[in-house]
Amino acid sequence: LIGYRRDMTDPNRPNVRRTVLMVLPAALAIAVFGIIYGAVARPLIGPGLTLVSSLIVFSGATQFSVLALLTTGATAPAMLLTAAILNVRHLVMGAVLRPSLGESRLKRALLAWFLLDESFGFTVLAAGRVEAGPKREAMAEHTLLVTGICCYGAWIVGTGLGILGAGLPGLDGLARAVFPVLFIALAALTARTLSLAGRAIGAALITAAICLTLPDWRGLAPVVAGLAVALPDDPRRPEAAE
Amino acid sequence: MTPLLLAGLAAITYGSRLAAMAALPRPTGGVEAMLARVPAAIFAGLATLSLITPERSAVEAPILLAALGAVLVAPRRSFALCLAAGLAGYVVGQVVPG
């Protein structure tokens, strides 16, 4: 019992309940967006494909973008190209997470299914609190799995409710407010030094500039900005993690 | 939308997730150090992205106030406090007219 209590309270140990509580606001917001997606997609592609799309694509950005392209009469190659551009960010997110994950390629391949903006954020946050090594790997894999399952479940349930005709008057605005707040909180928590905070502000400014000047490339803006500000100040100096 | 197109979208999405996490080699040295600086910047970028519409205008005032609330308490580096301040900002935006 004492060991169990220690597991519950020790932030350095994986704990399902604590992780679920952490991801809950994001999961609820994702469910609301799932409802909106289900309601919008059903008349365009039918209830069956709407549900299957959420089951096998599991990417709000990709799915909403494809819907928008469908309404403009875009061709299949244009939709696939858009999906490819939007998903480039996964390459960067996966590369960031990779050092925190274990050596099992099969486990990483399964966990990759759950890689999305929100689960990435919670995983980086949780892993960063634990010293490097097996404990960090366990924490990162646990967090990615639990937050990913919660987000996936929320997205599927939301899509299903949307297909069935559920409506959430007034809640969509609150759901849309959750994401900037969530990402600001994650930025604040992962900016552990003044240098990182300064780079984060720089990335926000670059993202805004890209969104305002090149709106077609806005999906890539956060990753481009993130990589741009992460470059070393002086390339001749040896690298050190901040 | 055909089932084949849907399968293509799924393959691209999962493929991009799989590539970096399971297929590509683990980054080391300078690349790993650089990637360690990326998360906070990406989150700040994602937050900014969610405040600008595809039509290049700002989102509605309650959402901006929610973000402002979170930014104001961000230096405290508390996840719960950011969420609470964001919610407070959103409520203020809903209550205050104009």
Explain this structure.
The complex is a heterodimer of chains A (242) and B (98). By secondary structure, chain A is mostly helical. Helices cover 76% and strands 0% of the residues of chain A. Chain A has helices at residues 2-9, 16-56, 60-71, 76-97, 105-112, 117-128, 134-163, 171-190, 194-213, 221-230. Chain A is globular, with a radius of gyration of 19 Å. The N and C termini of chain A lie far apart (38 Å). The mean pLDDT of chain A is 88. Chain B has 98 residues and is mostly helical. The longest helix of chain B has 21 residues, at 3-23. Chain B is flat, with a radius of gyration of 19 Å. The relative contact order of chain B is 0.08. The chains are: A mainly alpha (242), B mainly alpha (98). At the A-B interface, helix 2, helix 3, helix 4, helix 5 and helix 6 of A face helix 1, helix 2, helix 3, helix 4 and helix 5 of B.
The largest sheet of chain A is: none
The backbone outline of chain A, from C-alpha atoms, is: globular
Number of helices of chain A: 10
Which geometry of chain B do the CA atoms define? flat
What tags apply to this protein structure?
heterodimer; A: 242 residues; B: mainly alpha; 5 helices; flat
Write a concise synopsis of the structure shown.
The complex is a heterodimer of chains A (242) and B (98). Chain A is mainly alpha-helical. Chain A is built from ten helices and no strands.
Topology summary:
The complex is a heterodimer of chains A (242) and B (98).
Chain A: H1 2-9, H2 16-56, H3 60-71, H4 76-97, H5 105-112, H6 117-128, H7 134-163, H8 171-190, H9 194-213, H10 221-230
Helix pairs in contact in A: 2-3, 2-7, 2-8, 3-4, 4-6, 6-7, 6-8, 9-10
Chain B: H1 3-23, H2 29-36, H3 38-49, H4 61-73, H5 79-95
Helix pairs in contact in B: 4-5
